[in-house]
Design brief:
- The chain is α+β, with helices and mostly antiparallel strands.
- Helix content is 44%, strand content 17%.
- It starts with a helix and ends with a helix.
- The protein has a three-stranded antiparallel β-sheet. A three-stranded mixed β-sheet has the order 5-4-6, with no helix packed on it.
- The longest helix has 13 residues.
- It folds into two domains: 81 residues, Winged helix-like DNA-binding domain superfamily/Winged helix DNA-binding domain (Arc Repressor Mutant, subunit A), CATH 1.10.10; 50 residues, Ferric-uptake regulator, C-terminal dimerisarion domain (Dna Ligase, domain 1), CATH 3.30.1490.
């Protein structure tokens, strides 16, 4: 996958720098969604000279070429994940659990919004808020 990602950068006429290679490798090694700061910490363990601002720039470039997707999971900072498996997110407002939802889960809503309002929905950027099954089974405080 790293070679495919680097090839996509080259196809767009973008340079493959040490920083971009390090950020992509850290994303590939990651399990789940990472904040830019967490990603920078992983990258800086291997490459102490790569700064947080460089990680942000790499993530922005990766998003422009379709390698990563950023999402807002509740009220915290954006998180990033590879775009190879598109999905939606549901975040529990009680415990903070993040549930990955299949990409087609909102198709009916998107179809209705397009038909009734002429608006094309891209719901991957934000998470659906609510309560997970564990928290629903507990009484609210």
């Amino acid at each position: 996958m790293i070679d495919e990602g680097l090839a996509r950068l080259r196809e767009r006429g973008l340079r493959v720098t040490t920083a971009r290679r390090a950020v992509l490798a850290a994303l590939l090694d990651a399990d789940g969604h990472l904040r830019a700061e967490d990603l920078a910490a992983v990258v800086q363990d291997r490459h102490p000279d790569i700064h947080l601002s460089t990680v942000y720039r790499a993530l922005e470039t990766f998003e422009e070429v379709g390698l990563v997707t950023h999402v807002h999971l509740g009220h915290g900072p954006s998180t990033y994940h590879l775009s190879d498996q598109l999905h939606h997110h549901a975040v529990c407002e009680s415990c903070g659990a993040v549930i990955e939802l299949p990409d087609d889960v909102l198709d009916a809503v998107a179809t209705r919004v397009r038909a009734e309002f002429g608006f094309e929905v891209d719901a991957r950027h934000f998470a659906l808020a609510g309560r997970c099954s564990v928290c629903v089974s507990r009484p609210r405080r």
